[in-house]
Amino acid sequence: MITLTNDKKNLFDYYINNLAELAPYFHLTTKQTWKKSCFEDTDFEGEQKFKELFTVVAREDEQIEGFIQFGLSSYGYDENVEKDFLKPIAVIRQIYFSERKETIGQKLINEALNYFKQNNFSQYYAFFHALGMSFTSSHGKLSKNFDYIENLLLNNGFKIEHENVYYRKILQNEFVTKNKVILKHDCNLNECTENITFFLETEPIGKCNIFYLPDGKRVYLRWIFLADEFQNKGYSSQSMKLLCKYLYQKNCTELHTDTADSNFRAQRYYLKNNFSDLGRTRSYLV
């Protein structure tokens, strides 16, 4: 018999045994780091992500068969992708259960749908990108490895809202030819986040922002850009090589990133610079 409960006992063990490494952003981590990311999460600026967040666990004979998190975020985003604290987001943050256990999945999603209905939310999301767990660098989208969970969402009225391509590069000691591009790190925004500026001799030509994942070995590239007048001249690839060498020398082993499925220029750039395409991730909307 399946029972739904708020009891979170052994939920971390469920993550480690059933989810870790099944998606490219689900890494092995410590229980303390996972719990903070799951239940008391903050964003890159230190803001609480959720006004209210509910966790419901499905158990059968005390064994966890799945769980869901849903609630109301502390903020949304305006048309300029700036935080708007007057527009919180109703969202299913995550839902996971075993394949071929659709009945359990339906029971869990009903909990969220009832919450949205009771609070008269006319619009709500699932797997909203920026509201993922911070130990994954807040990558909130659902990996295509869980296509049966996507089917559940689609069968309950959700539509695909946005799609990204996820990339990873195994770091090594990059050979960087002598060139005029140099890298300088700016003041760290916090202990986990760093801004880096690329210079052509003394002129700044671009920047990037990186997030060090809690395991100390993986790094997430949040964004990178070069000014238009310096593109298509080889400086972009030189900058990436400098970044990878810099991280390798800090004993980091992997660099992760993602980009929109419509951003073909960025996709070509990552593949050209020896990133591996690890598949699509999606968010959903009603």
Automatic annotation (TrEMBL):
Query: In which domain of life is the source organism classified?
Result: Bacteria
The record's CDD domains line, in alphabetical order, gives:
NAT_SF
Gene Ontology molecular functions: acyltransferase activity, transferring groups other than amino-acyl groups
Q: Which InterPro entries does the record cross-reference, listed alphabetically?
A: Acyl_CoA_acyltransferase, GNAT_dom
Instruction: Write down the Pfam families for this protein, in alphabetical order.
Output: Acetyltransf_1 (PF00583)
Domain named N-acetyltransferase is located at 152-286
Q: What is this protein called?
A: N-acetyltransferase domain-containing protein
Q: What is the lineage of its organism?
A: Bacteria, Bacillati, Bacillota, Bacilli, Lactobacillales
